[in-house]
């Protein structure tokens, strides 16, 4: 009997060592617009950082982040590092879709970005898009176990129908190209699309929507966009976490954290606890 128990404990320990838990968040933090008044970035920045810290996110894909906002967050989250470039010039101009990662847990092995356009290697307006759009990616290694995974983060156009379809196709192509080893893949972003639309269906055909893959029942509301309206019905889901490969989703939630009936952004953060296998 003792031998059986020892074998069970050994097996459980081996399984626990094989699977690496990772906490992932995607969050459109709303660009620093002085016209937002009581919801302007200087009023919100401490709450955004506190939210990320409290939920102990290991990986965060941000959208609409300007360079000053990125610097503000890194100052308040010293354990985190980030990668990305401004979408307008490939340097610091315009919005970023940066990846923040806990540098005490992960090594960054490769990094890059591509534009959602016919010329992905350089800044360009794609198809019928209203804005230049970008996707940031990184190849990471878990320091403790050596496990590797790919992390992609993006922000789709809010108007161009063709741009959004082609952007979905391009990202799927780039994921395949940049991950020949079949490592776990995480894709986060504000896709500006609800689940029944063609681009989301294209992505869902090749990657798993974390909400529907979660072992636990999804937590929080359906919608992820609040428009800074505390009484929003929260019925518009446009922010997603997708996964692919040897990775399982343990938990999924849309977080409604607020302070004094004010949300830290006009989007809600989406959170998932994953296991890299």
Q: What string gives the helices and strands in order?
A: HEHEHEEEEEHEHEHEEE
Distance between the termini: 30 Å
The major β-sheet equals: 6 strands, mixed
> What's the pLDDT, averaged over the residues?
95
Instruction: Please name the fourth-level CATH homologous superfamily.
Output: Endonuclease/exonuclease/phosphatase
CATH fold naming: Deoxyribonuclease I, Chain A
Which strands sit side by side, in order, in the main sheet? 3-4-2-1-12-11
Shape: globular
Strand composition percent: 25-35%
**Tally of contiguous helical segments:** 6
What would you say the CATH architecture is?
4-Layer Sandwich
**SS class:** alpha+beta
Number of strands: 12
CATH class: Alpha Beta
The domain count comes to 1
- Please estimate the helix content: 25-40%
Gyration radius, in Å = 19 Å
Q: What would your notes on this structure say?
A:
By secondary structure, the protein is an alpha+beta fold. It has one domain (20-276): Endonuclease/exonuclease/phosphatase (Deoxyribonuclease I, Chain A). Helices cover 25% and strands 28% of the residues. It has 6 helices and 12 strands. Helix 2 packs across helix 3.
């Amino acid at each position: 009997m003792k031998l059986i128990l020892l074998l069970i404990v050994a097996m459980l320990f081996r399984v626990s060592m094989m699977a690496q838990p990772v906490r992932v968040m995607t969050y459109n933090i709303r660009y620093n617009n002085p016209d937002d008044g009581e919801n302007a970035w200087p009023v919100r920045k401490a709450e955004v950082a506190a939210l990320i810290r409290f939920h102990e996110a290991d990986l965060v894909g941000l959208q609409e982040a300007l360079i000053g906002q990125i610097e503000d967050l890194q100052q308040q989250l010293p354990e985190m590092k980030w990668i990305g470039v401004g979408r307008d010039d490939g340097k610091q101009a315009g919005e970023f879709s940066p990846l923040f990662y806990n540098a005490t847990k992960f090594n960054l092995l490769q990094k890059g970005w591509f534009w959602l356009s016919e010329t992905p290697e350089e800044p360009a307006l794609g198809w019928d898009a209203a804005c230049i759009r970008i996707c940031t990616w990184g190849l990471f290694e878990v320091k403790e176990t050596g496990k590797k995974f790919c992390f992609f983060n993006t922000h789709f156009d809010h108007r161009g129908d063709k741009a959004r379809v082609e952007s979905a196709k391009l990202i799927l192509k780039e994921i395949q190209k940049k991950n020949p080893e079949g490592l776990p893949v995480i894709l986060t972003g504000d896709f500006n699309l609800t689940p029944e639309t063609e681009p989301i269906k294209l992505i869902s055909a090749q990657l798993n929507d974390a909400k529907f893959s979660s072992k636990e029942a999804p937590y929080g509301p359906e919608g992820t966009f609040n428009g800074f309206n505390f009484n929003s019905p929260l019925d518009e889901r446009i922010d997603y976490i997708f996964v692919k490969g040897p990775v399982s989703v343990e938990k999924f939630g849309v977080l409604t954290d607020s302070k004094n009936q004010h949300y830290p952004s006009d989007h809600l953060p989406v959170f998932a606890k994953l296991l890299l296998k």
